[in-house]
Design goal:
The protein has four helices and six strands. The protein is of the alpha+beta class and 165 residues long. The chain starts with 8 loop residues before the first strand and ends with a strand.
């Protein structure tokens, strides 16, 4: 299992969504994933419809799970995720995602999700090359075409810069 970067915060997801509109992207996507699950253990990748989550999709990515560790591939990525890479992540191996930027941090705990078979959310902080500190939060949600075996991951991440006085 891969160790998360120092300062990473683990968020327990057993709690239900609070009443009203939820602000946190990760909790909104978790609620959508639960709806897709219905009475199944896992939703299928084919259940994903970006038009159903237009406010969330720019922060999302889809991963295809490879047979060998590190062989997982980005199959879709939203504009907000791509903005933190050197271009589109589509077709890139997860192992090649920038490790000290949002895309790499957002997928750093993928092996834990594959082992446990449940959604996991993490948050933490990283520093951009220009020295700007950034807070981030991400979530990885297992998906399966046969509704039991994980064949993909729906993920999302967002961040905000820390304004220093």
């Amino acid at each position: 299992m891969e160790i998360a970067p120092a300062g990473t915060e683990q968020i327990q997801l057993e709690q239900e969504m609070p009443s009203g509109i939820e602000r946190r992207l990760v909790l909104r996507l978790l609620a959508h994933w639960r709806i897709l699950c219905g009475d199944r253990k896992l939703p299928a990748m084919s259940d994903i419809d970006p038009t159903a989550i237009p406010d969330i999709w720019p922060h999302c990515f889809l991963l295809e799970i490879g047979q060998a560790e590190g062989g997982h591939i980005f199959r879709a990525s939203g504009d907000q995720i791509d903005n933190h890479a050197t271009g589109s992540l589509v077709g890139m191996r997860v192992a090649d995602a920038p490790p000290d930027a949002l895309p790499g941090l957002a997928v750093a705990y993928i092996e834990e999700v594959l082992k446990k078979g449940v959604p996991i959310s993490r948050g933490g902080e990283f520093t951009k090359p220009n020295g700007t500190r950034v807070l981030y939060r991400s979530i990885l949600l297992p998906m399966g075409e046969n509704y039991h075996t994980i064949s993909g991951i729906l993920g999302a991440a967002n961040c905000r810069e820390i304004v220093e006085n």
